[in-house]
Each structure stands twice: as structure tokens, then as C-alpha cells.
Amino acid sequence: ESGLEIGKTAGNRCSPEKFSSNKFCRPRDSEMKLLKVSQCHEDSPDFRSRLAQLEEATGLLEKKLRRICSICEERQALAERDRTLSQQLIREFEFFASKELDCQEETDAAMQNSIEVMTTALKQLVDNQERLFEQINIGILKPLQHFIEHDVEQVKASRKTYEKSRSEATHAADKFCQCKKPEMGLLNDLSLQLFDSRYDLHHSACNYALDLNCLHTKKTPIFLQKLVDFMTSQLSYFHLGQIMLRDTEPHINGLYSVLERIRTKVTSRDTEERTQVKSLLEQVLTSRARDLVVFHTQDLHFPSEIAKSTISRHLAEAHPSIPVDEKELEPASREPVQALTMSGYLWYAEQKTFGTSWIRLYFSIRKGMLVSPESTSKAKIPISLSLNLCNVKQAPVADTERSFCLKVVSPVRTLLLQAESTQEMQTWIEVLNNAIAHALHGQSLTPEREMHLPLEAMAAKYSTPAPVVKPKKVNVSKDLYVVPGNDICADCGNAKPKWASVNLGVLICIECSGVHRSLGVYVSQVRSLTLDTLKPEWITKLKEQGNAHCNTIYEAHLPDDFDRDAIRQDESRQEFIVEKYIAMKYTSPEMKERILEERQQARAESLRKSQQFLTQESNESASSFTSASEETDSSKPGEGGEPGKEGNGSKPEKNGSGS
Known about the structure:
Helix content is 62%, strand content 8%. By secondary structure, it is an alpha+beta fold. The longest helix has 74 residues, at 105-178. The chain starts with a helix and ends in a 13-residue tail after the last helix.
């Protein structure tokens, strides 16, 4: 109703009666403003006054026309920006509708059809808007610009000619009047000059007057024509838009009904999920309270009744909305764990220069491996340990200064982990032992069953390594070339690279591989895609990283005008690769600091392993030398040797045990 009232009000405002006395329609004496050609030769004050008025009107007309053109151009730019944003918005609507909407099977087709119809209508509206502004540009802007550049500029040129002719006529009259009578020959020449100059003045004044009259006569029809063209374009645009939007009205009403059904389902589902969450929270609270009772009784050595009453009282105060009966806190009898997989948070002891740092990481036991997915972001050394060569035991408190700790010992490294209770620590130890036994013998062994194993089986469990299966050499080039950017060398851009830097995760050509080998293994580890056997973790990293992703890090600040063809020379190639990976000239400061820290940690870990290996070799050599010396001493005369041979002063052979 309010819309109808507004329409009536607008209709009353636009009625012909309202415009009958409007300022745009009052009569004007347009003839009085035009110049009379018959007065051009007189050059009277009245003619000059009218000429000055027309010149002033011409200047104002030019300003107004240029202002209209400027507004049209600005509107064109805003329309182009609006069209671009509208297209982006429609694309986002389509993407959201195709990826994010949770449609049911019975309403999926109808909903998608309605959304497609509405987005199509929006696209057509944007196209119509583009055509509208093209019509405005062709029908209004360009004709007005032509009128300014042709008609107005022609009037300016006629004015310059007229001003010049009037100046020359005035100068000729002045010279003629200054001439004396006896100089008859000169007077004759000056009279002819005066005649010619006045004729030129009359001719230029007539042309100037005609141009001015023509300009001010044409402005009214031009303005009316362009206004009619503008309104016609607007009428056509809105008429087509009304037709298009009228076709979408049934789909809009259909979506309203679908929307109501979806809201009802969402409300019921939300209520159901809240009920499930409440039930789940009650179960979790009861289970964790039961574990807390076990912690109090086993680790804090509280009597069972006191522990249950204390925890029950705490639950009543802290969580009054969830009632928990004290009888439900009775812990269940613990049975041996038979599982092979487990996951959860443990505290990991990371050895540093000035002590031990404890980090809380998420560990998982699966497929005979102990891994931590978070190790790459928090711990400096990646944690991925094969359990077939490991041994698990509880760590004494005296050694770790912490409770509930367990050690996972392997030939490569030793992990010191901490649980949050004795029960959790025992569960981790049992599952790890089960995984170790399954990796060695293909069966799950609990500690009770493990005690009845024969001695040979126990020795095989802790000493016999699993057979090493060499991976088959496969052609991975085709799979790696699919990764974005891997079809060309990451450094120089040569096609079909056959080499890879497995730690950086990029593919390089054979020329760049030689430079990469000179950078050092802490920076780049080079392997051939066709000659070498790539480890699965290398292939995974090459697929996850790729040349495009790696270059966003190492070439983040590479100049836009950088020419890769120029670095294919040997000296330029080496200089660019050293700047890219060693100096990290094109890397952001934050990433540069992080990469340098990772390289330093890898170098320190490698040095630590080397020193540990050398110390072990030195101890073994010293032990063998001590045993050899004891054997030599035992073979001397009078100490159990053969007196006949040693008593004669004979010495042991050079190849004997003494040497």
C-alpha cells in the first residue's frame, strides 16, 4: 500500500498540469539572443553587446556540456566497477550453492534448478546493464563530445578570425587617418588597405555571427534528443529487467517453502544433537571421574571410599547440573589390553643444549609405527619410529624427576614420554608391547602371555631385526609432472626435469642439479627420477610441495621483470641458485629465519649422532684391546703357560693373540 501511495505521489508530481508553470517550460524570447546578420557590417555598440552576451552564453554552454560528459564518463567507470563486482558476487553465489548447500535428495533437483534460474536472471541483468551503458556511451556521450570538439571549437576559431580582422581594420583606419594630403600616392594605398580590411572584418563578423547563431539554435534539439535517448534506454533496461524477474517469481516462492522445511529440520536436528551432547558429557564426566578415583587410589594412595566421596563432593559443587551417583564412581576391574592401536597426548622430552624441554604432542600407534603428526611444527626432530626393533619399559622417577614416564628404546634413538597417570602409562606400555609383538610375530602379546614365551622367542623379539625389503624402482615422473609447476625446472625453467631435490620437494634439470650438489646435503639432497630409487616419504614430499609451492617461499620477493632465460649460463645459474637457497635473497625474513633454524637443528642432530657413533666405536676398540692384553699376560712363563716353550725365551708370533 505504501508503494502504491508513493507511485501515486510520483505520478502527481509528473503530471502535465504540474509542469505547465514549471521553470523549464516558461516562454523565452530566443530570437532576442541571436545576432542579426544585417548588423554585422555596422559593428555598433548594440551589436557588440549582443555579441558579448552570446560569447558568455557560449562559454557557459561549453562548461555545462563538458560537465555532462565528465559525469557520463565517471558513471561509465562506476558502472564498469559495479558490473565486475556483480559478476564476482554471482560467481560466489554459484560456488556456494554447488559446494556448501546441504540439500536433501527430494529437494535437491528443485532447489538447484531454482538457484540456477535466479543466477541466470542476475547474469542477464548484468548483461543488460552493460548494454544500457554502451547505448549511453554511443548515443549520448560521443555525440556530445563531437558537438564540443566540432561546433564549439569552430565558434572559437571564428572568434579568433573575427578578433584578428577587427584589429587589422582598426590599425588600417588609424594609419589612413594619420596620412597627410600632399602624399597622394601613399594615401591611395592606405585607402585600398582600409577597404580590404573592412571587407575582411565584415566577412569574418558574418561568419562568426552565423556560427554563434547555429550553435545556440542546435543546442535545444540536441539536448532534447539526448534526453529522449537516455530515457528510452532506461525504459528498455527496466522493462527487460521486469520481464526477467517476473519469470523468477515462482522459483522464489518455491524456495520460501523449501526454506521453511529446512528450518524445521535444522531446529529438530539441533535439539537432538544438544540432547546427545548432554548425554555424552554425562558419560565423559562419569568416565573421567572414575579415572580420577583410580588416580587417587593408585598414585596418591587414598582409601577408595575417601577418594570416591571427595570426587563426588567436588562434582556436586563444580557440575551441579550433571548428577553423578557415588556408586557409579566404582572403578571397573582392569583387564589386559589386547589392542594394537592407540592415540592420545603425551609429554615428550626433547633434549636441548641447556637441559630438557617437555612438549605436549599427539602420538599414534598404527601399522607398527609410533608417530606424532604434530612433531614437524613443535618438536625440532620428526618423530616416526618403527616398533619392530624397539623395547618399551617404565622409566624410574630418579632418572627423569617426573612420574608416569616410559621409555621407547630403539637402535636409532630413545624416546622419553610421560603420561598423566599410572593407569594411562600402563595402557600405553601394553599397547606398545602388543604392537611390537605383532610386528615381529604377527600376534598380539600381553605381558602375562609374554612371560610364558621360550627364551629363543624373547631373544628374537628384542634382538632379531625384521627382514629389509628393498623398494622396487618405479617410474614416478608422470605422477610428479602433474603437480603444479613440476613440468619445468624450479630454477631455470627447462622443460621435463629429470632430477629432484628430495628435501626441498622440487624438480630440477640436470644442469641445475650439479649446482644443487655443491650447496651441501643440509640445503639440497639431489636424486635422479630415473636412476635412483626414491623412498616413499620423498615421493610424498615431492607431491605435496611441488615447484609452484616451493617458489612461493624462495621466490616471494623475486622481481617481476626477472628473466629466467638469462640464468641458463653456467655462471649466472650458479649465482642465482646460491642467492635463492643459501643467501635466500628473495625469501621473506620470517621464512628465512625459520628455514635457517631448521637447517641448524638438522646439522646439530647429525653431528650428535656422529659423535655418539664414534664414542661407541672407541669404547668397543678399548674393550677389545683390554681383553687382548689380558690374554697376552696370561701366556707369560710361570703363569700357566707351557714352560718348555716360554722358558726358552721364545716370543709369541706376530699373528698371535698377544699382537
